[in-house]
Amino acid sequence: MSKATVVVVTSGKGGVGKTTSTAAIASALAKEGFKVCAIDFDVGLRNLDLIMGAERRVVFDLVNVVRGEASIKQALVRDKKLNNLYLLPASQTRDKDALTDEGVASVINELRMYFDWIVCDSPAGIERGATLAMRYADEAIIVSNPEVSSVRDCDRIIGLLDAKTVVAEEGGRMPKHLMITRFDPERAKNGDMLSVDDVVEILSVPLIGVIPESKDVLKASNVGLPVTLSDEESPASKAYVEAVQRLLGEDLPVTIPTEKKGLFGKLFKGRAA
Amino acid sequence: MNFMNFFARRGETASVAKNRLQILLAHERTGDGSDAKLISQLREDILEVVRKRMNIDPDAVRLEMDRSGDITTLGIDIELPQTKN
């Protein structure tokens, strides 16, 4: 049997960075040499294709595959830069009910034969798209901003991960990792933002990474590159790469990379290309 | 990559973003998902023609589409079977 790992990137709340994180994690894993497939489960509102810069090359999608209108191999879009990274896009023209449990199960089972890592980008909410994105996962990355509504929604999602997934139904416990995104160390230090420890304490999920708020994330999405590919020196990119090391089992202490704002940083603002 | 870097370095990623969105939305607003159907049919037609001459594995056929502004290109890669030794 294959040794593929299916990981869902989920949060409940929208806009916290699931898609950005999915793209960054999938491409960081691919850079490590693994065969990686990122799946967009946001049927009707897909965006992973845009963030990964593949939007002009999408022909078939997840719903076509689930309905047997296209094979998985036909629907996979290969990344322009990394030839071991693929995207399975969501459908843009249908609604979330177009996905069926059996259909998703068979898609994931087949992908397990071809890939080392399958990264599922969950839609926001707790409806069918979100529950199917997590259903066949082996592990979950829970994305939260250091902000009250986001943390609360994550708690709800944790409940679903422990109830509505195959792992949970078989009596297992879904391994979960907390990823805090859009973190501003300055504001947390001043007490104007929940600290990393606060969020970890409330959710009781082990931390896999803290991604600092960074301008590079928007720049990367503008040009359609995962931030881990567009700018390796970016603090956000470094934080994602470290999170992926931890996902791969390395015992790295969680650090919070920040933009260097010292005199040296100011003098040498431009980064080496 | 170089093209992206060119804009990125000059701080003009926003214009890349706008351009990408214009192309994408122009397509999505007119599109009704018939692309996929058409391409599926084309694929079957082409496969049939090639099959007249040789045996090919349907899985060894890759379709690549690229929509850039006014032009959409469709590339079809067919992995030919090894010639017998």
TrEMBL record, chain A:
Belongs to the ParA family. MinD subfamily. This is Septum site-determining protein MinD. Transmembrane segments: none annotated. ATPase required for the correct placement of the division site. Cell division inhibitors MinC and MinD act in concert to form an inhibitor capable of blocking formation of the polar Z ring septums. Rapidly oscillates between the poles of the cell to destabilize FtsZ filaments that have formed before they mature into polar Z rings. Interacts with MinC and FtsZ. It comes from Roseibium aestuarii. Keywords: ATP-binding, Cell cycle, Cell division, Nucleotide-binding, Septation. InterPro entries: CobQ/CobB/MinD/ParA_Nub-bd_dom, MinD, MinD_FleN, P-loop_NTPase, ParA/MinD_ATPase. The keyword Iron does not apply. Residues 7-227 form the CobQ/CobB/MinD/ParA nucleotide binding domain. It holds the Pfam family CbiA. PANTHER family: SEPTUM SITE-DETERMINING PROTEIN MIND HOMOLOG, CHLOROPLASTIC, SEPTUM SITE-DETERMINING PROTEIN MIND HOMOLOG, CHLOROPLASTIC-RELATED.
Automatic annotation (TrEMBL), chain B:
It comes from the Bacteria. Pfam families: MinE. GO terms for biological process: cell division. Keywords: Cell cycle, Cell division. Belongs to the MinE family. Prevents the cell division inhibition by proteins MinC and MinD at internal division sites while permitting inhibition at polar sites. This ensures cell division at the proper site by restricting the formation of a division septum at the midpoint of the long axis of the cell. This is Cell division topological specificity factor. It comes from Roseibium aestuarii.
